From TrEMBL:
Belongs to the G protein gamma family. GO terms for molecular function: G-protein beta-subunit binding. This is Guanine nucleotide-binding protein subunit gamma. One of its GO terms (cellular component) is heterotrimeric G-protein complex. G proteins are composed of 3 units; alpha, beta and gamma.
Length: 69
């Protein structure tokens, strides 16, 4: 996409992005990191990557066996 744009268009796009970012409220890492850790720990019980997927509900489980003769 950027290859098709002139330098002026790229600068305008970057300026618009920076204007959007300036409007975002910023929070200290000490506060947000704690909140993220608490949320992750609360969601861990339902996370299939942490607890795994039961064999009967696994959509990727092979239906039949492989026989080599």
């Amino acid at each position: 996409m950027a290859r098709d744009m002139s330098d002026k268009e790229i600068m305008k796009m970057e300026l618009e992005q920076l204007q959007k970012e300036v409007k975002n409220t910023r929070e200290p890492v000490s506060k947000t990191a704690k909140e993220i850790c608490e949320w992750v720990e609360a969601q861990a019980a339902e996370d299939p990557l942490v607890k795994g997927v039961p064999e009967d509900k696994n959509p990727f489980k092979e239906k039949g066996g492989c026989i080599i003769t």
